[in-house]
Write a structure and sequence with these properties.
The structure is a single chain. This protein has 269 residues and is α/β, with parallel strands linked by helices. It has two domains: 117 residues, no CATH class; 133 residues, Rossmann fold, CATH 3.40.50. Helix content is 36%, strand content 18%. The chain has ten helices and eleven strands. The strands form three sheets. The protein has a six-stranded mixed sheet with strand order 1-2-3-5-4-6, with helices on both faces. α3 runs antiparallel to α6. The longest helix is centred in the middle third of the chain and has 17 residues. The radius of gyration is 21 Å and the shape is elongated.
Amino acid sequence: MNSKQLDLFDDNPEYTAFVEKFKPKKTTDDCYTPDYIYDAVLGWATEEYNLGDRPIIRPFYPGGDYEHYTYPADGVVVDNPPFSILAKIIAFYIAREIDFFLFAPGLTVCSSAGDKCNVVISDSAIIYENGANVKTAFVTNMGAYKIHVSSELHDAIRKVQETARNEKRVEFPKYEYPDEVLTAAIIQKIASKGQTLRIPAEECWFIRSLDAQKSQKKTIFGSGFILSERAAAERAAAERAAAERANATFWKLSNREKEIVRGLGHAHR
């Protein structure tokens, strides 16, 4: 977005409110954990670490503030935190000597834990309530092992997930987005097929959800970007070979979001 565009928006209260709304809220987790997955993980952790009747704490929810949460004595945090600030969360709990067992991104769990806590690997691809299929591991400051590979935890998660499918208690949704929206999942598909995509900063706008999703309390897993018309065309071309759009929910842009699209990338026209 060029300086002339910024001048147009400087004195616009609606635009200011819009920008504030989409600033990342670091205590909100976009990846909601199904109850049956959480219960399986909690059951394993309770037995493994002999938690007994210790209070179980879940401070990570939309609008929550884990730094100002009132933690009961002898409590244990077992929850799925925002992965983007996982290292900060770990440091917070270690500094305050609060026990925790946290969900973590499976492919980067070692770097997330560092030398500050232990890693539990179960090789679990968890399907969350928003349909995201995420390779998930865990970090904890409990237990005697720096690295713990658990087939029991793997089996517990796999069993409840298969049961959920078989009983049709949940239907895992598939979301499809317009070409003007780029998500982490779409980027991965493009990369997996050997495609190249380069989008400059002035041709994209960071978002956490579309207006159409808010009434259904849905978000874009991992957040995403609204693209300029030119960048959207490049994204569509790059994705065609990898896109799997069958049985998908198609989220449309609102009029306000279409205005953003029209305002992006003028410097390249």
